[in-house]
Amino acid sequence: MKRLGMLAALGVAMAALSATQASAAQPPQACAAMAGKVIGGLVISKAALVPPAPVGAVQVGFAPTDRNKVAFPAYCRIDGEIDGRTGAGGKHFGLAVAIALPADWNGYFLMMGGGGLNGNLAAPLGPVAAGDRPALTRGFAVVSTDGGHRGGGFSDDFTRDQQAGLDFAFNAVPTVATTAKQVVQAYYRRPITRSFFTGCSTGGREGMEAAERYPFLFDGIITGAPAMRTDRSNLALKWAAVAFNRISPMDPKTGRIIPGGAFSPSDRQLIIGAFLKACDELDGVRDGMVFATSACRFDPQVLQCPGAKAEGCLSPEQVAAMKTAFAGPITPDGRHVYSAHPYDTGMAMPAPIPGFLLNSTAGPVGGGVLPTSMDLVADEATENANALQQLIDTYGWTNLSSFYGHGGKQIFFHGMSDPWFSAYDTVDYYQRLAKDNGGAEKLAESSRLFLVPGMGHCAGGPATLDQFDLLTLLTDWVVAGKAPDSVVATGSDFPGRSRPLCPFPQHAQYKGAGDPEKASSFECRM
Fold first, then answer.
1. Is 498 a catalytic residue?
2. Which of 457, 466, 486, 493 is catalytic?
3. Is 418 part of the annotated catalytic residue set?
4. Distance from chain centroid for Cα 169
């Protein structure tokens, strides 16, 4: 929306509120008074004060054990809906919205991205890439949305409704952000000073969408593991599943392929051990992690048995399957349909999302089918004919001149062990972004990419440091012009260990002296 339009909309919204709703530090009754109001199209159904929460009282991550490590302040939570209606199949649709308005507001606005195919309304806390301090605990006003439909997971039934499909594809982000900004400014009766977006997976794709299609909507964006072309990444998962399922043993009880059975537990340990032997010390220290990813040249061929399959080596069929799967889908004429997947320490992790080496289904939307064959050309043609998918994808657009031109900053991050979306695909996008926006040095003035060794999809992994605070870096970059040269990462896999994550194409390299468990003993190098 143009700036004049935004100012006009804000004036209308503020006029709709009672004059008793005063400055930034609102009295308790101001929150309750929001219920029943309509601001910028948001029909507010509920407004209630949420009391302060002590450490450990709030779930902030995917797992129930992911609890807050800093106390949450009191805040006013507003719930409502934009464009509620009855749509296809007689089902209810509309953009459900939750907004957290802290008592001590810092003037900043943050929108949270979604996940999967959306459909769930997450608590408006702002935890993505914020380390131990979710955005709400810092004083940000935070908004979340379900994306326009109900029902999470990976069911795409909602796309039978035209508007619900369009909301998921691109409409939810600008609609909710614009409306929520009006609510925030009307509540505090002063303007927002800076606007941010953070998300991973689908939320990462939505962050790309905002920078590409709505360049004036946000000042800073964090884009994690973006689901930027799921049509192609799902083909890559099916491609790998076929390679592995063809050599997987059958379950004698069910007569079905054993999911993830192509490699025994001892085979997996063998592969991870060989990978570490080849690449672990390239960053200057043997620590069970590989930071010098661009220099790593692991080839599973070194594990092939000289004869029949035996303990301590892999069969020729296993080696061939690995090479085929990790190389990514390639058409008969040699064209790459999707990026290769990197070898990394999390490639054999069993949970929460199985590593790429254990892939046996056609991706998260594969319905549990265990394919043993595929016609890549035909499958790709089917994807190319999917009109909605073309609206969803954010992989192709690289002209961010308007976003960068108004001072917008963007930070990407991606786990090297992500089994769903290859980190190499994000690297490819980032390199094309550099080419189309003045070169790598020029791009670094507005955008940085951080690769996270060992990390799976958005978080987790058996040997990773997946806790890092990119939100502080982004805020400092937007507000003070301080570009992020590195970020310190920690994690539960290695208590007491810290490492710097470096902007691509640099990596953390041990200086040769100092405690190898401390980030201060490392520097960023090419």
1. no
2. 457
3. yes
4. 16
